[in-house]
Hints:
This protein is an all-alpha fold and 291 residues long. 71% of the residues lie in helices and 0% in strands. Helix 4 crosses helix 7.
Amino acid sequence: xxxTAGERAFQTVNIVVxxxxxxxxxxxxxxxxxxxxxxxxxxVQNRGLLLLPKGFxxxxxxxxxxxxxxxxxxxxxxxxxxxxxxxxxxxxSMAAYGLSRRDVFWKNAIMFMIVFTMFFDxxxxxxxxxxxxxxxxxxRWALIIPGAISAFNLIIMRTAxxxxxxxxxxxxxxxxxxxxxxxxxxxxxxxxxxxAVMLLFYGVSHWNSWFSAxxxxxxxxxxxxxxxxxxxxxxxxxxxxxxxxSSGDQMPIGQTIKYATIIIATIPILCVYPFLQKYFVxxxxxxxxxx
Length: 291
């Protein structure tokens, strides 16, 4: 189909605007990447855009990996991501399955109470008192149990499970399957796009979480990576990584250490996202529209 002059002009303007917006969104990450590999002395002298590393050195990364707090925090974050996401998916799936069945008593009232929590929150102090009374303060489970189920994600999963044909459930029951077997062997495999999206949502949430750790944890051996990153970026706490650097060079290399820490904390999510991207739109649409 031949495009008119107006349509060609619109497409050209549309492409230019999208390219500019993409560059604006991508440049901060590129800047941080190039700055992390730049020579500290040359970097502080740079003015304007940074389109290539100023010099090339991996000294900042060496100092970051030599810091024992970073390694411990990295392992802690991996535990929180894998253990927390496993708990999230298991509990959310079972709750979504139960609330998606037609014959569940009071399911609409239960859903109303769940949705109610999305608009009204008890606040930080009641949450802290609850976690303390449960004996979870200063433990790893303080970052997993209180947020075991997200109301928003539960609603998406429930809507997706409702789209599974009821005839499949009836057929499974005729073969002697119970609710757990139907959930894990019938409904769960047919909802893999939604499960993939939930893995991404919950996993990224755990990876980026730092506020709960700041409130509930005091033992630095339990700190996640993002809390250590916050200390480095906001509190300017790079002293433990600069003991072998002369006082005159500490400020420039301290900046590159910050950039290197950001890259180290970001790369894992960037590597995982492409594998789940193909499920993203399909999973959200299935969970957002009742079939």
